[in-house]
Amino acid sequence: MPALDVLALGEAMVEFNQARADAPDQYLRGFGGDTSNMAIAAARLLGSRGIAGYVSRVGDDAFGRMLRELWQRERVDASGVAVDPAAPTGVYFVTHGAAGHEFSYMRAGSAASRISPETLPHEQIRAARVLHVSGISQAISASACDAVLAAVAAAGASGTQVSYDPNFRAKLWPLARARAVIMATIAECDWFLPSYDEAKLLSGYADPTAIIDWCHALGAPVIALKRGGDGVVVSDGRTREEIPGHRVDCIDATGAGDCFDGAFAVRILAGDTPFAAARYANAAAALATTGFGAVAPLPRDAEVRKLLDSAPG
After folding, report:
1. Do 71 and 52 form a contact (C-beta atoms < 8 A)?
2. CA distance 308 to 159
3. Which whole-number Å values give the CA distances from 171 to 139, 242, 266, in the listed order?
4. Residue 1: which pLDDT band, with cuts at 50, 70 and 90?
5. Could you give the number of structural domains in the chain?
6. Residue 104 falls inside a structural domain
7. Which is higher by pLDDT, 253 or 208?
């Protein structure tokens, strides 16, 4: 089993994305799941320079086979993915309207929700350079939440850096429970990657400066506060920098934050400062909005470099 540069843990699903506003009954089949998106983004950006991997469970069904074929095509090491013959692979639908994209999930009792501390590939986690986890993985079941916390503990004990995106989804768990679990996990991460909207809900603050202060007070050493088209605010506890967004032809923002997470980890591993890593990740995330679905538009390194080189200033 190879040592991995980036290892993500969570739930992957098959995606059905509403293709066009003028054809609301037509859907494009794709793939999603925040941590799977992150692993694929990292794999594309690493290219031949490193290996990204994934830990999860899928059903012994057509959708599970599609996901395993996807990871093989994308050069994501799926040796940490187990096949569960007793549970299905999750699916979800994305619709688009005036208020943005809306998600509808069919994931209750999914194979991934049955992941537990006992089923984790602990050696693989301890050998990885970065472990990425998310609040969605903690929300889908009690055993999955326990698995995330066990993986984070194993990573911390072995010197593996921990990347954490809260990815709060109100449909999955109550805000009070989410806040308690996420706050406890923030203290164990090496970098924390919330979006502005979820950080506002979790912290109770609207001002980005107050949000970042709240994150640091909970123990996060590095924070990248993602603000969509407005860019990102990065802090390492000593310096803060506002990085503006990029002007692109935005079609679908599904997966953009996950792309940021993968790109940020890749550049930290390459030796970048958090600020340089965030500039690169900010450009990668912008490019991830220029196509439909969570996976198809994820960029490669040359595309990100081209956008960065063309940016003003």
Report:
1. no
2. 32
3. 10, 31, 31
4. low
5. 1
6. no
7. 208
